[in-house]
Amino acid sequence: METIFLIFILFLGGAIVTWMAGKLGNIVQDILFLATIIVPSYLFYANVATGYAVDFNVGGIELSWGINAFGWLFSLIVLGLGAVVSFYSVSFMKGKERRGFFYFNFILSVMSMLGILMSQDLVSFFIFWEIMTWSSYLMVVYNGNDVQRIGIKYFVFSAIGAYAMLMAIVVIKSITGSFMIENFISAYPSFSFDMQILIPILLLTGFGVKAAIMPLHVWAPGAYSNAPMAYTSIFSGSLSKMGIYGMVIVFTTMLSYVPEGIWFREVIAWLGGFTAVFGTLWAIKQDDAKKLLAYSSVAQLGYIIVGVSIGTPLAMMAGLFLAVMHAVFKGTLFMVVGAIERQTGTSNFTEVTGLIRKMPWTFVAALISIIALAGIPPLGGFVGKWMLYESLITSDHYLLVIVIFFSSTAAFLYCYKFLFGFFLGQEEEEWAHVKEAPALMVVPMMILAGLSFLLGTYPGIVLKPISEGMQVLGYGLTQGELWDTSIILNGWGNQVVLQPILYAIIGIFVFFMVFVTLKGFKSTRYVTTKDISSSGEVPLAHENLTFSQNFFQPFLRAVEPAMRRQIDKYYNAIANGLESLFEFTRRIYTGNGQTYAIYVIVFVVILLIFKDSIFG
Amino acid sequence: MDSIWFKLLGVVVSFIVAFAVGMTYMGLNRKITARVQNRKGPPFYQNFIDAIKLGSKTTAIHHGVMQHFGPAFLMVSSVMSLMIIPILNNGMWFSNLNFHGDLIFLLYIMVFGPLGMALGAGQTGNPNSAIGVTRGLSQMVGFEIPWVMALVALMIQFHTTSIVDLINIQVESGTWLIFSSPFAFVAAVLAMLGMFRYSPFDIVGAPTELASGPMSENGGKYLFTMMSSASVFAFAKLTLYVDLFLGGASNLIELLIKTFVIYMIPVLYGVVSPRYRTEQSIRYFWGWPAFFGLLAILYAVFF
Q1: How many C-beta atoms surround the C-beta of residue B34 within 10 A?
Q2: B44 in helix, strand or coil?
Q3: Helix (H, G, I), strand (E, B) or coil at B64
Q4: Which of A409, A442, A546, B147 has the greatest count of CB atoms below 10 A from its CB?
Q5: Quick check: A212 and A293 in contact, CB under 8 A?
Q6: More confident residue, A323 or A474
Q7: Under an 8 A CB cutoff, do B75 and A509 touch?
Q8: Helix H segments across A311-379?
Q9: pLDDT of A59-110, one tens digit each?
Q10: Which of chain B's residues have a Cβ under 8 Å away from the Cβ of A419?
C-alpha cells in the first residue's frame, strides 16, 4: 500500500480507536493517542519523498496527494509542534473530562493540516480544510463556556471563509474543467480580467479568516482563549499557519502572473500592518493571559502576513521564518498558561502573582519564549524581525516599517505584563502552596524554549528548508546571498553575524554576573517581597502591595483615541440589522396556516381582477 | 593584531574610556543643574566617589535570582552597544564588533538592558519599581517612533544600514549628516531627550514620587553596576549621535568635544523643564518629533 494512504488511515483509525479506548483505562488511551501522532509522523518523514505524489480516482473525480518542499516546510510546524504538544496534552488532560473527545479532535486537526499540505487538488484541499475547521470548532466549544457568543462567531467566520473558497473552487472548475491545482495555476494567466481579480479575492478571504487578518480576525481572541490551552498551542501555532500557507501560494503563483497583483500585495500588507498594531494595543489592555496571548497571536500573524505579501525574497524568508518562530514561542507560551492554569486554577494576572520561586522551570520557558517574541537578540525572534525590517526598508515600504516598528516596540509592554503578572511581583500567601507543573508538561516547554535559543544563533537550520520551499515557489537560490548558517544579510550587503554576538553577550553577562554575586551570593540572605523599602515603614503581612490593576494605564490613556472604535461593534451593528430584517420577514412568513391561506386567496383574487391585462 | 586577546583588550579599554567619560559627564550634569538652580552643587568628580563607595559595599539581602540577573542584563546591553558603535572613525582602534551588527540590531540590543533590568526590578516586589517600569516602557514606545523614523530616513537616503558605512560616507564627502539630512537630526535629538530620561521625561525614576522607581531595592554592587552601566550607555549613545550626524571623530579629543556638545542638549533642556506625566510625554513624542521624522523620510525619498 502507498505510505501516504497508510498515514491517513493510521490517523483516522487511531483517532477513532483512541476515542473508544476510554473504557480500557486512561493509560491505554494516552499511549494510543501518542502512538497515533508519532507513528504517522515518523512514516511521513521516513518514507515520503518531496516531489512524490499519488493520483487516484474517487467517484469520477481525479485526486492527487503528495508533498513538495514548500509543504514539507509547513509539515515541520504541523507535525513537530503536534508531536511536542501531544506529550504535554497527556499530562494536561489528566483527570479532565471527555479526554477521548479531546484526543479525537486533536488527532483530526493534525491529520487535516497534513492533508491540506499534501492536497494537490482542490477537492481534497477543501475537504481537509473543513475537517480542520470542524475539529477546531469542537475544541473551541469543549469547555462549554460562552458557546453562543464565541463558538458562533468562530463558526460564522469560518463559514464565510469556506463559502468564499468553495465559490472560487466552483468557478475554477467551470473554467478549467479540472480540480488539479497545477492545471488551474498554469491556466490562470489566460483567465478573463474579472476572474483574475475575483478568484484571488475569494481565496484570500478564505485563507485570511484562518490567518486572522483584519477585519476577519474578530473570532480569534475568543476562540484561542476558550479552547483548552494544550490545543490552543497548535491552534495558534500551526492551524493559523494554514492560512499563511494558502496566502503564500496565492501570492507567489496567481498574483505574480498579473500586473494587478502588486495592488493585492500592498493592500494585504497594510492590512497585516494594522492587524499587528491593533492586535498589540488590545493585547496590552487584557488582564487575562489567554486573551493577551490570543491578541498577541493576531498581531504576530500580522507581521507574517506583511512579510509574505511584500514577497521579495528577503521578505518572504522573513515571513516564513517568523511563521516557524511563532509556532515555537507561541506554542510554548500557551503551554505555560495551561500549566499555570492547571496548578493555580486561574490565568488572570490580577489574581495570581509571584510564581517565580514556585514554578521556576515554567518561568525559564516563559522567559526565553517572551524574549523571542519581543525580538530581542540573541534569540530566534530577532532574526525574523531583523529580516522583516530590512526587507521593508530595502523594498521601499518606509511607512509600513514604522507601523511594524511601533507594534513590535509596544509588544514589549505586554511581554513584560505577562512575565510580571504571573511570575514576579509580590508573593502572596494564597499561592504559597503552588507546585511546579509535572515533568511531562515542563519538558515539552523546555524543548521548544531551547529551540528558540538555538534558532537565534543558527537560523540556517530553518532557513535551509525555507529556501528550498521558496525555490519550489519560483524564487532563486538565497543561501550565501541573504543568509548563511549563522549570518543574516540584507539586499544592500549589510549583515549581522550572530555567532560572535552570542559569545559576546554570554561573556559580558557571565562576567558581570560573577562580579555582582561574587562574595555576595552566599553571604546575602533571601528576604520576602514584604521586606522592602517603603519610606521607612515596615509593611505588615496583611498589607496588599500587589500591583496588577490598570497595569499600563498611562500608555492606554495615550492611545485611547485609537482604541475607541472596535470592529466588533460594526459587525454587531450588521448582525442587528440582519436580525431586524429577519424579524420583518417573519411577519410575512408567520408559520401560521391561516395566514398562508389568506396569501393564496389574495393572490388568486389579484389574478382574477387583472386577468384581462395579464393574460390578454 | 587580530588575536582574541587584542580584541578583548580593545573592549576593556573602550569600556574604561566610556566609564570615565560617562561618569564625568554625569558629574558635570549635577554641577550644571546645581548652578542653574543657584546652588553650589557637588564637585564634578562626585560620581566617582559615589561609585567607589557603592562598589566597596557588601550586600546583606536579596529578593531572588532575577535580581542578580537585572544588573548583568543591563550591562550586556550597554557594553554590546558600545561594541557595535564605532568609537573612532579611522577604523583602526576600538573596532570591537563594528562589522557584526547594524543599526536595526543596535536598536534591539539597546532595549535588551531596560527589559532585563525591568525583570530584576519586578522580582523585588516593590510596587514602586513595577510602576516605574511600566512608565519607562510606555515612554520608550513614545520616543522610539521619532528615533526609528530618523534612522529609517538615513538608511534610505544612503542605502545602507551599517553605522560604519554612514561614517565613511560623511568622511568621504566631507559633509556631516546634520547638514545633508537636517530633519532626521531634529527628530533624533528630540527622541534623545526621552532616551536620557532627564527632565521633563524623568517620570520613570521620579525620585520624589517613586523612590527612584526601578532602582529602589538595589544597593551596593548592584547599584554600582547599574550606575556604571548608565554612564557607559550614555557615552555609547552620545558617540552614536556623533557618528551618525557629526561625522564621527578621528581622535579622542575631538570625540570628547563633540559628545559634550550633544550632551548639553538634554542637560540644558532638562534643567529648565518641569516634569511631564507619562501620557503627556508619549503624546509629545508622537507630535512634533514624529512630524520631523516624517519630514525626514519625505526628504530622503524625494531629494
Answers
A1: 14
A2: coil
A3: coil
A4: B147
A5: no
A6: A323
A7: yes
A8: 313-344, 360-374
A9: 788 888 888 888 899 999 999 999 999 999 988 888 888 888 889 999 999 9
A10: 119, 122
What is the ipTM score, two decimals?
Answer: 0.92
DSSP reduced 3-state for A529: coil
Strand locations in chain B (E): 61-62
Angle value at C-alpha A409, between A408 and A413, nearest 5 degrees: 105
Nearest to A393 among B109, B156, B293 (CB): B156
Q: Which of B59, B66, B152 sits opposite A520 (nearest CB)?
A: B59
pTM, entire model: 0.91
Q: Are strands A525-526 and B61-62 parallel, antiparallel or unpaired?
A: parallel
For residue B61, give the 3-state DSSP assignment.
strand
Task: Search chain B and give the residue with CA nearest A500.
Answer: B100
Residue numbers of the domain that contains B138: 4-302
Q: Among B5, B57, B63, B166, which would you mutate to test the A interface (most chain A Cβ atoms within 10 Å of its Cβ)?
A: B63
pLDDT tens digits for range A582-610: 888 888 787 788 888 888 899 899 888 88
Q: How far apart are CA A508 and CA A514, in angstroms?
A: 10
What nine digits make up the cell of A30?
494516552
- Cβ-defined contact of B68 to A516 (cutoff 8 Å): yes
For chain B, how many structural domains are there in total? 1
Helix (H, G, I), strand (E, B) or coil at B48: helix
Residue type, A373: L
CB A122 within 8 A of CB A181: yes
Per-residue CA distances from B182 to A494, B240, B267, B300 (Å): 24, 16, 21, 10
Separation of CA A364 from chain center: 23
Nearest chain B Cα distance for residue A376, angstroms: 6
Q: Residue A348 pairs with which residues in a beta bridge? A: A288
Q: What are the residue boundaries of the structural domains of chain A, listed by start?
A: 259-525, 566-615
Calpha distance A207→A158 (Å, rounded): 10
- What does the block give as the cell for B23? 561618569
Chain B, residues 52-91, CB within 8 A of chain A, namely 58-64, 66, 68-69, 71-73, 75-76, 79-80, 83
| pLDDT value of residue A48 | 82
